[in-house]
From TrEMBL:
<feature type="domain" description="NB-ARC">
    <location>
        <begin position="401"/>
        <end position="552"/>
    </location>
</feature>
<dbReference type="GO" id="GO:0006952">
    <property type="term" value="P:defense response"/>
</dbReference>
<dbReference type="InterPro" id="IPR036388">
    <property type="entry name" value="WH-like_DNA-bd_sf"/>
</dbReference>
<comment type="similarity">
    <text>Belongs to the disease resistance NB-LRR family.</text>
</comment>
<feature type="region of interest" description="Disordered">
    <location>
        <begin position="1"/>
        <end position="26"/>
    </location>
</feature>
<dbReference type="InterPro" id="IPR002182">
    <property type="entry name" value="NB-ARC"/>
</dbReference>
<dbReference type="GO" id="GO:0051707">
    <property type="term" value="P:response to other organism"/>
</dbReference>
<keyword id="KW-0067">ATP-binding</keyword>
<keyword id="KW-0611">Plant defense</keyword>
<feature type="domain" description="Disease resistance protein winged helix">
    <location>
        <begin position="1325"/>
        <end position="1374"/>
    </location>
</feature>
<feature type="domain" description="Disease resistance protein winged helix">
    <location>
        <begin position="639"/>
        <end position="706"/>
    </location>
</feature>
<dbReference type="InterPro" id="IPR042197">
    <property type="entry name" value="Apaf_helical"/>
</dbReference>
<dbReference type="GO" id="GO:0043531">
    <property type="term" value="F:ADP binding"/>
</dbReference>
<keyword id="KW-0677">Repeat</keyword>
<dbReference type="Pfam" id="PF18052">
    <property type="entry name" value="Rx_N"/>
</dbReference>
<dbReference type="GO" id="GO:0005524">
    <property type="term" value="F:ATP binding"/>
</dbReference>
<feature type="compositionally biased region" description="Basic residues">
    <location>
        <begin position="1"/>
        <end position="18"/>
    </location>
</feature>
Length: 1385
């Protein structure tokens, strides 16, 4: 007799497991007393069986059918839901009675059921729902008002008993800062929390506090919104910094903007505090902070806002808001081809080389040829294009060669170009020399006119502004001439404008040339067709003569030796710059008194008053032309002393910490900062240090210019006398070691007056107790500090370091006797970089919630924390660099916990002493692990497609858990298996984890196979839940002789074609929704004599179990549960090959070893010969494969010995037709040895890039301009990560030039009337390729209030007209064919 399987109703199943994401348990919220906030009120999480639970599992779907099926089911479902809510609400203190909440729940259920009426006419409208909710709210308020005072007091007392501990329960999932709604979470929390304070429960104080908080939030948002306009205004004002009035206002405006940033960042720190500390936070300190900001009648926020408005108004009065920034002509007077210098000092070599590059013959005997030309110019009336028929010896060229001269300002580019233009050979060679002063205004029409004015007689110059006519006339005037065009002082590198300017020169006479002078290598790269010509400073001996000439004129004899000595000391500062020599020569020549010269020697160049055309004002033009983000980064560098040598990575980290790097979606700040650095280096603001290709230095003159533009913000203290000179509002300060300054001097100075300081580089040693006082003072007074680099006293960091709330970068230069960090260090929620290279630390607190922290490389080093036992890194969302490869030196490290640090990049994690590791969303921390003592390893939320077991060396592992890896598809191990337990270093049948006893894989929905993981000789428990597995090596389960617990649940795609084999040691078995294993049932249960618990759920293949099984085979069974449910089955996979053999070859092509491995995978163990005789092994292999269609994969083959290959293939001579071999190799030579078919080439990175490019292609929709835009962006780097980032980004997220695709399309949008702009802008809410109907969109526009009202015309009719206008303008495209599934919908 077969025993019928019992089926249980799903709603009564007490053992059903719901799959939920990993998260903290829900925390009760204290509700603010605003009962009307129905949709904003934080409500308790519904119970697991509740109506509102959204879950994909079957039970929830069945519950919905019960609740919404109508009839009696409605009452049953409603009663269950209400009961669940009532139990939960009774446990949570609230300002309203639980009964009122229950009434609201019942009302919501009633509305929901009405919305499900089959007849759409009976369903309530939005207005009906709102009115119903309002009516219920009014009813609740009346009930609340009628509640007795005693009842209210009782409820309030329950509430206060929880709040009187001054701890407010809040969820730990408060989001990070939203710049569009400044610190909204902070203010929402404060308003909610304040309502729970006993002292403010009633009366005007509570209302005033909440009202003040809302007003403060509004003011703060207004201040935040104002800053972008202020940045723009600063950028404009710097173009007129030579105006003393503007310079004074600019200094004040920058100071006000700095103050605004400091205040906003302090609010953001408190928001992070609320987000990180969760239910452990106190509300009083935050309210005290709010009071410190408002300070009675004065409000810091509005105070700064008024300053900004006032200064902005003052600058607006002088016209800064309207004008397009341009160079002042007094700083950059127009140049011509006529030199103003009577003599050029030793540029003969450069001049001769340039003349040769211009194609001018240098042989004196070669004069200009007397050319006779046959001209037949035909002018087209349509396009005014010129076609010239010229003799064969007078060929034309389609593009004129362009030679750029590049060098920093003042180096002599213009002077050299003028000298070339006036050279007799050049004049003879070119029929026409055109000189155009470009400057910062590259206007194609203006430049064309200037070229035309110099190439045609006045009567032939068209009196028009039509560019087509002008360029036609220019082309005609140049058509039969060999010309030289000089474009002097070019700044703008817009490629499109350059091509437009060059259009008339497409049929120029061969030998024509263009010469461009520019400071910008970027401009040179745009225009050049030849290698650019770099112009450096004058050589030392020549420069000395030139400098003397600048100081004394032609009569440089009889110079005072003392003056000459001072001059020699000044000379190196000028770095060979002719303009710098002129500047200093003029200043020195004003007086030949020794004191005057000595004063100039001891002064910084930027401190000397200079004319508009002197060196620093000239160099400042380069600074002014930078975009604002580069200006801020470069001007910051003035805090470093002259000749300071730095690395790119170090400077970028500090820029990021200073907040100087703009955020771009999907791009790390460090990557963007690196691009900033490369731009500045490309523009010659930074130079490679000669002795190291990784280090840089700032040119002396550029450093002087940096100090000039940042003189109010940056200051360097070199000696004691510099301290009183510090500007009161200085933001960046450097104290240099080597002078007469001591720490005691800093202690005597009142640093509180510099409380706005953001940066402190102090290279003085802090060793004494007095020095410790200096650090204490800094921590208590310098509260705006972002970056601090300093020494440390023997007492370590003071606890008051936590006062520096805004600190993001801390570098300790030397060691300390103190071996630990203060616990208050963890309150530095803005900390990004902590660098302590010489400080040995035994203990550090958990690194928790440092959302801006990007690197721990300088902290977690063996030399600094040699005795550390546990490392916890939690919720550091921007952390990238952790020195895991050096953890091998942490000899006492036992526990590593990394939680939600998705950007960590790790090449190798080596920690021999580590015993436990818990990783949740840990970046790529698990890619390469070597931890010989690790016993427990948990991985959660790892975003990868594969886990490669060969990258793990964990021989002691006992417990492995992998969960919530949504993109994981395979767990594999490509290492070979050996039959010999100790076979020559290869892994034996004991598997990768010989000591593993507990394995859990859960919620990996894309995981298809994990067979390689199941070589587990010591395994006792395997649990596989909610995975997309398609196959499972059941025979390996059967070989697990110690397995006691096996659970396979929610793996509906499993194909059990190879059968289900279970070991007799099994004690607990759970099979739940795991595919069709009917072919192995009930035979799989026959030998389970030790089985005590059996659960089979949702397995439709099981209909009955033979009766004899219960008494004979399952005699130890104590618990039995069957729970089956009809579900859909996946189709079975038909495999083409009966046997697949995988062999990892590597660089050891040993025929005997490979034969053994093939034999191990093709024969049962008892049929494998116990011998090393190759003849016997190959005979056994041939027999095992004789009647099978097999595939043998030889992976990573390096050895191409032809004889060995033939010996290995000998057993396969009589293989079944259809059998195949697949070889992977890096060597084409090996491919030629083994192949019988054409090799299949994989081009690695190129192929990957091509694959990504193919995916990007559909986004461009055939647009050539879009292709150019994305081509430029992709071409910036051929790194796979760069292309992948662009693929995963939206097109609008990428920074684009003015002529790229989106700015070009935006012109169409800008030309729309406002009412159409608003309607089209709204459509961005729809996903890409969303298909909609005109009527539906118009209805939504009307509901959004986007359609204007016109008398006697319905809004829908007007909206329809809007739609037609946008469609007519191609903003909407009609869909010709709609997919059938959409039509059905």
């Amino acid at each position: 007799m077969a025993r019928a399987v019992r089926r249980r109703a799903p709603v009564h199943s007490s053992r059903r497991r719901a799959t939920i994401p990993l998260r903290s348990p829900p925390l009760p919220l204290v509700n603010p007393p605003h009962a009307s906030s129905w949709f904003r009120r934080p409500t308790p999480a519904p119970p697991a069986r509740g109506l509102l639970l959204s879950s994909p599992n079957l039970e929830c779907r069945r519950r919905r059918r019960v609740f919404f099926s109508g009839g009696s089911g409605d009452a049953v479902g409603r009663g269950e839901v209400v009961g669940s809510w009532r139990k939960r609400l009774e446990l949570i203190p609230m300002h309203m009675s639980s009964e009122m909440h229950i009434q609201q729940v019942e009302q919501c259920i009633s509305i929901a059921l009405k919305c499900l009426e089959p007849d759409s006419n009976k369903r309530p409208t939005s207005l009906d729902i709102v009115q119903s909710l309002n009516a219920e709210e009014t009813k609740s308020r009346s009930l609340e008002n009628s509640t007795s005072v005693a009842e209210k007091d009782r409820r309030n007392q329950n509430l206060f008993s929880q709040v009187n501990r001054n701890i407010i329960n809040i969820p730990k999932t408060i989001s990070a800062i939203n710049n569009l709604n400044e610190c909204a979470n902070l203010f929402h929390w404060v308003i909610s929390a304040a309502s729970s304070l006993k002292s403010m429960c009633s009366g005007t104080q509570l209302e005033k506090l909440q009202g003040d908080a809302r007003q403060l939030q509004s003011d703060l948002q207004c201040l935040s919104d104002t800053l972008p306009a202020m940045y723009n205004l600063i950028d404009r004002a710097e173009w007129r910094i030579h105006d003393h009035y503007v310079a004074d206002l600019l200094s004040k405006l920058k100071d006000a903007v700095y103050d605004a940033e400091d205040l906003l960042d302090e609010f953001r720190w408190y928001e992070k505090k609320v987000s990180v500390e969760g239910n452990a936070i106190l509300v009083e300190p935050i309210i005290d902070f709010f009071h410190s900001v408002t300070q009675g009648s004065f409000n810091k926020v509005t105070g700064i806002q008024k300053r900004l408005n006032h200064l902005s108004g003052q600058l607006e009065k002088i016209g800064l808001h309207q004008t397009i920034p341009r160079f002042d002509k007094s700083f950059r007077p127009e140049t011509t081809a006529f030199p103003i210098e009577p003599e050029i000092f030793s540029r003969d070599n450069e001049k001769e080389k340039l003349i040769r590059m211009l194609g001018v013959p240098t042989d004196n005997s070669t004069g200009p040829s007397k050319r006779k030309r046959k001209r037949n110019a035909v002018c087209s009336s349509a396009s005014n294009q010129i076609c010239a028929t010229i003799d064969s010896n007078e060929a034309t060229i389609t593009s004129v060669p362009v030679l750029p001269i590049v060098g920093i300002g003042g180096v002599g580019k213009t002077t050299l170009a003028q000298d070339i233009c006036n050279n007799s050979k050049v004049i003879c060679h070119f029929e026409l020399v055109i000189w155009i002063f470009v400057s910062d205004d590259f206007d194609v029409k203006r430049l064309t006119k200037e070229a035309l004015d110099q190439s045609s007689p006045p009567e032939k110059v068209p009196k028009t502004d039509n560019l087509n006519l002008l360029q036609g006339a220019l082309a005609q005037s140049l058509s039969n001439k060999r010309f030289l065009i000089v474009l002097d002082d070019m700044w703008d590198g817009n490629e499109l404008d350059w091509k437009r300017f060059c259009a008339p020169f497409r049929n120029a006479l061969k030998g024509s040339m263009m010469l461009v002078t520019t400071r910008s290598p970027k401009v040179a790269d745009v225009v050049r067709t030849m290698d650019r010509f770099p112009l450096e400073g004058l050589k030392e001996d020549v420069f000395r003569k030139f400098f003397k000439f600048c100081v004394f004129g032609p009569n440089s004899s009889n110079i005072d030796p003392e003056l000459e000595r001072i001059g020699e000391k000044i000379l190196p500062k000028l770095r060979g710059s002719p303009l710098a020599a002129k500047t200093l020569g003029r200043l020195l020549g004003m007086s030949l008194e020794l004191a005057h010269w000595d004063r100039i020697l001891k002064s910084q160049l930027w401190e000397l008053q200079q004319k508009e055309t002197d060196i620093l004002p000239a160099l400042r033009l380069s600074y002014m032309y930078l975009p604002l983000y580069l200006k801020r980064c470069f001007s910051f560098c003035a805090v470093y002393p002259k000749d300071y040598i730095f690395k790119k990575e170090d400077l970028v980290e500090i820029w990021v910490a200073e907040g100087l790097v703009e955020h771009h979606p999907n791009i790390s700040l460090h990557h963007t900062g690196g691009q900033y650095f490369e731009e500045l280096a490309h523009l010659s603001f930074f130079h490679k240090y000669p002795r190291s290709h990784k280090k840089y230095v700032i040119h002396d003159l550029m450093h002087d210019m940096a100090q000039l533009v940042s003189k109010d913000e940056c200051f360097i203290v070199k000696e004691k006398n510099d301290i009183p000179k510090m500007p009161q509002n200085v933001r960046h300060l450097s104290v240099v070691n080597g002078g007469d300054i001591q720490c005691s001097d800093l202690l005597k100075h009142d640093m509180a007056q510099h409380r706005k300081l953001r940066t402190l580089f102090c290279h003085l040693s802090l060793e004494s107790e007095t020095d410790n006082t200096v650090m204490e003072k800094w921590c208590n007074e310098l509260l705006c500090m972002r970056v601090m680099v300093c020494s440390i006293s023997n007492w370590g960091l003071p606890g008051s370091i936590s006062n520096m709330k805004l600190l993001r970068y801390l570098q300790i230069l030397d060691s300390s006797l103190c071996k630990s960090l203060p616990s208050a260090f963890c309150c530095l929620y803005n900390m990004q970089i902590f660098n302590a290279t010489k400080w040995s630390i035994d203990d550090i607190p958990s690194i928790f919630g440092c959302q801006n922290l990007s690197s721990l490389e300088q902290l977690l080093q063996p030399a600094y924390v040699p005795n550390i036992k546990k490392i916890k890194i939690l919720s550091c969302s921007n952390l990238e660099r952790v020195p895991t490869e050096k953890f091998g030196g942490l000899l006492f490290l036992e526990v590593l916990y990394v939680f939600r640090c998705p950007k960590i990049k790790s090449q190798w994690l080596c920690a021999p002493s580590l015993k436990e590791m818990y990783l949740y969303d840990p970046g790529d921390l698990i890619d390469n692990i070597e931890c010989s003592s690790l016993t427990k390893f948990h991985i959660w939320g790892y975003p990868t497609e594969s886990i490669e077991l060969k990258m793990w060396n964990l021989p002691s592992l006992q417990e492995l858990r992998i969960g919530y890896c949504g993109s994981l598809t395979i767990i594999r191990d490509s290492e070979p298996l050996s039959t010999d337990l100790f076979h020559s270093g290869t892994r034996s049948r004991m598997g990768k984890f010989p000591l593993l006893t507990h394995l859990t894989i859960s919620s990996c929905g894309e995981l298809k196979t994990m067979d390689d993981l199941l070589y587990l000789p010591a395994i006792e428990s395997i649990k596989i839940r909610n995975c997309g597995l398609q196959s499972l090596a059941a025979n390996r389960l059967g070989d697990s002789s110690r397995l006691k617990d096996l659970e396979i649940s929610d793996c509906s795609s499993l194909d059990w074609q190879s059968g289900l084999l279970l070991p007799s040691s099994l004690q607990n078995l759970t099979l739940w929704n795991c595919g069709d294993f009917s072919g192995s049932f009930p035979s799989c249960l026959e030998n389970l004599t030790s089985l005590e618990s059996l659960e089979i759920h949702d397995c439709e293949c099981i209909v009955s179990v033979p009766g004899h099984m219960w008494s004979s085979n399952l005699k130890s069974l104590q618990s039995l549960e069957f729970f089956c449910q009809d579900i859909c089955n996946n189709s079975k996979v038909i495999r083409h090959f009966k046997l697949v053999i995988w062999i990892f070859v590597s660089d050891d092509f040993d025929v005997k070893t490979l034969t053994k491995e093939a034999l191990d995978q093709s024969s049962p163990p008892e049929k494998v010969p116990k011998t090393d005789n190759l003849n016997l092994l190959q005979g056994a292999l041939a027999r095992s494969l004789s009647n099978k269609r097999f595939l043998i994969v030889l992976d990573d083959m390096w050895d191409g010995n032809e004889l060995d290959w033939k010996r290995f293939c000998a057993p396969f001579r009589n293989a079944l037709k259809g059998s195949m071999m697949l070889v992977t190799t890096r060597s084409p030579k090996i491919a030629d040895v083994v192949r019988t078919m054409d090799p299949f080439p994989l081009e690695g990175l190129k192929e990957e890039l091509e694959r990504i490019g193919v995916k990007i292609l559909p986004k461009l929709r055939g647009s050539p301009l879009a292709a150019k835009t994305l081509g430029r962006l992709l071409g910036m780097s051929l790194e796979l990560a760069h292309w992948d980032r662009i693929l995963k980004s939206q097109l609008w997220e990428h920074q684009q030039k003015e002529t790229d695709i989106l700015p070009a399309l935006r012109l169409s949008y800008m030309y729309l009337p406002l009412y159409l702009k608003r309607c089209f802008l709204f459509c961005a809410v729809y996903p890409k390729d969303y298909i909609f109907k005109k009527e539906d969109l118009v209805e939504i526009w009307v509901a959004e209030g986007l359609v204007e009202h016109h008398p006697n015309i319905s809004l829908h009719h007007t909206g329809g007209q809007y739609f037609e206008e946008l469609a007519h303008l191609s903003f909407f495209s009609e869909v010709s064919t709609v997919p059938q599934e959409i039509c059905n919908t």
